[in-house]
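So, can you check?
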Amino acid sequence: MNKKSIYVLAIAVLTLTACKDGKKDNPSTDHSKMEMKNADGHNHDHSKMEHKNEQVKKNMQQSNVKNAATTPIVNAYLQIKNGLVATDKSATAKGATALLKAFKEFDMSKLSGNTHKEYMEILENAKEQAEHIEKSPIDHQREHFEVLSTDITDMIALLGTEKTLYQDHCPMANDGKGADWLSETKDIKNPYFGSKMMKCGSVKKQIN
């Protein structure tokens, strides 16, 4: 076997053994479909959601502000995350209810100019994800959590947080395209697969 063949074989082995501590089964839902129909009968164009998030990100830099005002929102998001880690549909839905309440109670009067505009764009999308997480089966909860994680990460970058968080990445989520989430602990507990691949992932960065 020549050197080129050995190199190609080595790359293939490394790819196949990603997150080798868990199963490699794909989730039952098809993330490759850009237009998905949820159990509640609504269509969700993820390409539009992602485009909106990218537009917000272009005008945003990571905030280092220790902002206690965002804590109820972050805590509710973490409640959703922990519900998915436990593969507990009911606990996840309760987290979504808490998140909608936190959004409603958040004081936007202190936001002005572009900050207010960007927050409103994030809020619109995040509320939609939370509403569907509140009433969807677990597989669809995980789909909406993927988009919600981007929204909450963007909100923290815009407004800041008093909490120490870890931005984690799972290379196997989203049909192998990878997806991020936020956690309050360094230990990897995967919300996209739960017990199927609990330790799949790595910490990308620490916030605060």
Q: What stands out?
A: The first helix runs from residue 3 to 16. The first strand starts at residue 35 and ends at 37.
